[in-house]
Amino acid sequence: MRLSHYALALTIILLAITGYLAWEAQEEAKGARKELELVRKQQAAHEAAMPAKPVTVAELPPPPVAPPPSTVPPLAGSSLMPGTPAPLPSPPPAAAPLTDLQKQILGMPAFAKVVESHTDQGFAVINVGKDKQLTPGMKFDVRRGNGLVGRVSVGETIEAAEAVVDIDNTIVIPGVRIEAGDELILPVRK
After folding, report:
1. Are 93 and 168 a contacting pair, CB within 8 Å?
2. pLDDT tens track for 105-149
3. Is 114 helix (H, G, I), strand (E, B) or coil?
4. How confident is the model at residue 82, as a pLDDT?
5. Which long-range contacts (CB under 8 A, 24 or more apart) does 159-163 make?
6. Does the CA dihedral 39-42-44-46 come out positive or negative?
7. Could you tell me if 147 and 175 are in contact, meaning their C-beta atoms sit under 8 angstroms apart?
8. What CATH number labels 100-185?
């Protein structure tokens, strides 16, 4: 055979290999697009389950200041005069009714409690771990009473019965620190 026949045969073989590799790359790209579409759907479902924006409790106004006691002498017939009955005590002021958000916060079961808090270093220790299927990245709101004081996310250090959580400093009430005894609840939807 001539050298030109070898060159032609080699060119045909190279074209066949190139065509096969191009077809295989297209099939792989289709699979990657389907996988990306699945991941996007999962992320959209996860974001739909999470609150749209962080929920914080507004600061309460200061309590009203009671007027100073009067220095006027008691009048006749007042309870300070001998032989007159004491007046009935006035009922304590009624507590403000709870908002729907506060009711929702109170109604949520506690997932864990803060055992130690190191807010200056940005982390806290909670009393659950691998025993409650805790995984890194899980997010929780921190509840104290009927209000939220912050948000935390589970870090990489997870023991059998305790774990370290990172304090999200972007979602805290000014002047309030996460303390031992605070409870972790699932993120609250507003």
Report:
1. no
2. 888 888 899 999 988 888 999 999 888 888 899 999 998 888 888
3. strand
4. 54
5. 159/129, 159/130, 160/129, 160/130, 160/131, 161/127, 161/128, 161/129, 161/130, 161/131, 162/115, 162/125, 162/126, 162/127, 162/128, 162/129, 163/125, 163/126, 163/128, 163/129, 163/134
6. negative
7. no
8. 2.40.10.410
**In one letter, which amino acid is 126?**
I
Q: What is the pTM of this model?
A: 0.50
Q: Per-domain residue ranges for the chain? A: 1-49, 100-185
Cα-Cα-Cα-Cα torsion 96, 101, 102, 108, nearest 10 degrees, comes to 160
Average pLDDT, the chain: 80
Over the stretch 149-182, which tens digit does the pLDDT of each residue have?
889 999 998 998 899 999 888 877 777 888 899 9
Scanning the structure block, which residue is given the tokens 């912050």? 150
Tokens of 83: 């032989």
Measured CA to CA, the distance from residue 8 to residue 32 in angstroms comes to: 36
Contacts 24+ apart (CB under 8 A), 9-18: none
